[in-house]
Each structure stands twice: as C-alpha cells, then as structure tokens.
Amino acid sequence: MCGIVGYIGKREALPILIKGLERLEYRGYDSAGVALMGRGKIFVYKKKGKVAALKKFIKSKDKKSLAGGIGIAHTRWATHGEPSDRNAHPLLSNSENIAVIHNGIIENYLPLKKILIEKGYKFKSDTDTEVLANLIEDVKKNTKVSIDEAVRLALQQVVGAYAIAVLSKDDKETIIIAKAGSPVVIGVGKGEHFIASDATPLVEYTDKVIYLDDYEMAIIKRGKLTVKTIQNEIKNPYVQKLEIKIDELEKGGFAHFMLKEIYEQPKSIRDSMRGRINVEGGSVKLGGIEKYQNKLVNAKRILILACGTSLHAGMEAKYFFEELAKVPVLVEYASEFRYRSPVVFENDLVLVISQSGETADTLAALKLAKEKGTTIFGICNVIGASIPRATDAGIYTHAGPEIGVASSKAFTAQITVLLLIALYLASSQGTLNKKEMVKILSELENIPKKVEKALLTNATVIKIAKKFKNAKDFIYLGRGYGYPLALEGALKLKEISYIHAEGYPAGEMKHGPIALVDSNMPVVFVADKGGSYEKVISNMMEVKARKGVIIAIINEGDESAKKIADYVIEIPKTLEFMMPLVASVPLQLLAYHIALLRGCNIDKPRNLAKSVTVE
Ligand code: M6R
C-alpha cells in the first residue's frame, strides 16, 4: 500500500517520478505528491486524488521549481488521516528542511508526537509521517550529525512498518531510504539510481536492482550508493537482474489491466507449469522445493496461510491435496492465524500464498509459523518480494505482473502451482501411480486450451451482465471445488462493482441464506458435472422454487441444467480438481462486465490497493 518513487542522477527527475507514480498507482490512489530538490529549497507539490490530479496541479507551477535531477514522490492509500492535500505525502519538517515520504504505519507515532509537541513542534497534518519528519529534524538538531545519521538514529526510536525516502536541504545531493516491513527497491543505472516500492517503475530504465532487507537503509548520492543497517553495519548489496519486460506493464490494447489479465490466463497457466511437468514420464519437477522434499513428504499436515483471493486458491488446494495426496490440510486467514495462539507442529508444513509477496498479514503469519519451527514454502508471483525471501523454499507462479487490483490470473496460476505440488507429493508418496499421473498431467497440459474456450463465453457473459447490472445483491453457490470458487466469484463482484455479494457452500443454503432468495435475487451456481453435481442441481431447484433467478456455470451440453437455470454459461469439461482453472474465467468476466456497465473504476476500485502492506 502506497507507492514510493525516487530518482537521483543526470536526467530531469520529475517525468521519471510521475511515470513511476502512474506505474505504482495500483498500490494506492487517494492522493499523490512530489518533492524536488531545488537550489535553495525543497519544492513540494501534492494533491488529493489520483496522479492525474497531481499532474494537472503542477502544470501551472513555476518551471524552475520543477527542474532538477533529484526528487521523491508518493501515491497514497490513507492510514493516518483522511485523503486530503494536507495529509498527502511528502510531509515536511517544521523548518521545511526535510521532506519524507512513507509507506507503512509508525505505531508509536502518538507518544513521539507528544514529545515533539512538548518541544514546540507544530503539526499540519494528521499523519504519522509528519512525526517522523520532525523526529529526524529534532535528532539532527540535538546531535549535529549528518542527515543520514539523523535518519538512522531517528529510526531507532520508531516502532512499526515503514519504507521511507528522505530529502534534506542540508545535503542537497543525497536521497536516503530505509525499510522495515514495507518494500523498497533500488534500480542501479549508469551514474544514476531509481527508487521504487516495487520493480515496475524501474523496468524501463535498468535491469539491475537491489532489494533492501528489513532494518537496512541506503544513502544514495549521484552515482554512489552505501547500504548499512539501522544498527550501522555496512552491507555489501546484492545486485539482481530484473526479469520483467516493459510490455507486461502496458494494457496492450485492452480497456483495462483486469481484462488483459483475464485474457492472459492460458499463457500464465502454461508459463506456471512450463518445465515443471513431464507428461510421458508421469512426473513433476519442482526445483524450488527439491532440497526440502523430505519435509513435504514427511509432513503430517499442511497448513495454508493467505489472504483474499490467495486464500481461495488455498481452499481449492485443500480439496485436491486431500483427494490426491491424502494429507490433511488446514487453510486459514493469515490475518486470524497471526493474532491467536495457533497449534503448529514441527512436522507440519506451512504453505504461504501471496501474489504480491508483500501482504503484511501473510508475512506476519509466516514469521509466527517460523518461530514455531516449521518448514515454510511460499507460492508467490513477485520475484524477490518479502515473502519469498522469508520462506525456506518456494515456487514462483509465472503469471507475470498483475496490475489490476482485482486478482485474476494470479489466482489460476496459484492453483496451477498448488496442483503441481499436490501431484509431486502424491507421486512421491505413491498415492497416485504413474498411469494416473500421466492421465492427470495430459489433462493439465490441455488446460490452457480449455481456458481459451472459456474465454469465448465473453459474449454470453456480457448479455447476462446487462440484465443484472443494477442488482443490489448476488448469491454465489457451489459445492466441493465449486465452493471456494463461489467465494472468489463473490469477492470479484464486490470489489470492482460494489454490489453486495455472498459466496456460500451450496449445501449450507438451507441453513440460512435461502431466506434471502426471492425474484430479485440473482444466484450464481457453479454447477459443473463433478462429484456433487446432483446435489447442486437439487439446490438449484430449491432456488427456483423460491423464484430466485439462476445463472449457472455448467459443462458444455448439459441439457438438464439448462432446463432449470434462467441463464447458463457453458464451459468445457475437465477433471474435477482442474475445473476451477476453467470456471474462474466466466466468474471474472461477469464481475468485470457488471463493473464496466456500472461505470466503476475497475483497475483501481475504491478503498482498495494491490499490495496490502498494512495490518
Ligand atoms: O498479494 P496477495 O496475494 O497476498 O494479496 C492478498 C489479497 O489482498 C488479494 O488477493 C485481494 O483480496 C485481491 N484484491 C482480490 O482480488
């Protein structure tokens, strides 16, 4: 949450900062601002609203104040203080000598603020960040040290999560950044450095990046970089090669990133299994977890921790791990797990799932599980993010950058990789023999084609979306593998169209939700011909008897379901545990088209951000 950008070098900083903010806007978009190092002062411009509002605002400003090769910028997702001009970042210290941008939460900002107020500091915003700006100023004033030293000492007083970038008039040739719990990446160019919350704004300038670790800071001068810990230990930074390509960050002719990402699923699923399956040999090869194979095979239980859509992928995985590998699986919201006293055994295996690899609750749950001595595997999409760096081993989903806030291709890529782990385990343990593995892997190899076919439902989905765009509520129902999909379908609709939607196990409907059903209630069924098909059909009849309107995702040519449902979306049949890979598509498209017809901001839904780096 919140996007940080910085530049120091020979080029003009402002265009780089603005472009970087646009790339990072999916992380937060309630206000944006820049601080540019001028000859005599730091020029700060900030505005409530999206980056576009900031761009418009600075157009009228004195060109000289916008020039120069050093600057920092921020796009905000509000935590402390409502979205407004005054709470937007950068925040200046009282003397206006120091500008700070910040991603995260400074938990002890209130006691720090109290002390600073007693010392005479005045505050113009409600933010925790302004407290940090003044704290740095106060440390500097009292200790007479350099600005980087003042930042380092000030951070020792701070409790909480942060990624910060600091400019100071006292050292006009330096940007200081630091990190604890929130991400920050440095792009290394020739005589220049780029700073960003994630690698997406850096791709067009360099393919060399440095990821700071927690409690590290970097002092960046033109062409020179020093990395040290907050405890003052000098570090030798590891420069990595960035694999993202620039066209992956563009919409490529689609109206929205979400639509592009929905359509990318045949490729992202294929990429996520590429080089990992040997169909003829009936085997799965997972290099990322090879060294820990024993931990997986000997695990008495698998514990899956995740949030949001990633949790729904984990719920699908529970079903196929238990079906194929016969190992018990517990799936838990990371945000719950971390705040209770979970019982975790050393011979459990923990699987954390996260698209961004930065979700604060998932990261905290991972750390808690680690303290209990278990082995942790990660399934992540963003290479080098905090979660994969904190796990023992893991497998990347190769979905490519997912920019739309509503997750789509990451979900199906996660299911693909989870399925590979389940198959790897099942064949290692002998719960599946070679013949069965060959059959399953042949079907898996075929899945991208079935997903392509599912994408052809788009025209049907648009017609349905037109009928229901004004509905006030939706119910999504499914059984077995259809149940987590019902949750995911409802989540997609809620987050991008703002229509209230409930996902429920279809069998639970009679225990309460059926009371909601009347002629105004659209009920979406996942009604593929899986093991619970007959039961789902009975549930459809129950809804029909109460005049509910049924939209059913069915297998191609299922005439019985067609007779019951009011609207059908036909998808190709596959093995039951692979059905979510195919059935996700119409659910995503339905949410997308309803949101589009309602005029919603699909890629940047209100109140949301792509990486939830606050608790
Ligand atoms: O990056 P993560 O997978 O850890 O993110 C978890 C959730 O925040 C995320 O899936 C969220 O629910 C999405 N907006 C859903 O579309």
UniProtKB/TrEMBL annotation:
Domain SIS: 292-431, 464-605
Active-site residues from the entry: 2, 610
Chemical reaction(s) catalysed: D-fructose 6-phosphate + L-glutamine = D-glucosamine 6-phosphate + L-glutamate
Keyword vocabulary terms for this entry: Aminotransferase, Cytoplasm, Glutamine amidotransferase, Repeat, Transferase
Pfam families: GATase_6, SIS
Annotated InterPro entries: GATase_2_dom, GFAT, GFAT_N, GlmS/AgaS_SIS, GlmS/FrlB_SIS, Ntn_hydrolases_N, SIS_dom, SIS_dom_sf
EC number: 2.6.1.16
Domain spans labelled Glutamine amidotransferase type-2: 2-223
Cytoplasm in keyword set: yes
GO terms for MF: carbohydrate derivative binding; glutamine-fructose-6-phosphate transaminase (isomerizing) activity
An individual GO BP term: protein N-linked glycosylation
Protein purpose: Catalyzes the first step in hexosamine metabolism, converting fructose-6P into glucosamine-6P using glutamine as a nitrogen source.
Subunit structure: Homodimer.
Xref: PANTHER family: GLUCOSAMINE--FRUCTOSE-6-PHOSPHATE AMINOTRANSFERASE, ISOMERIZING, GLUTAMINE--FRUCTOSE-6-PHOSPHATE TRANSAMINASE (ISOMERIZING)
Protein name, per record: Glutamine--fructose-6-phosphate aminotransferase [isomerizing]
Gene that this sequence comes from: glmS
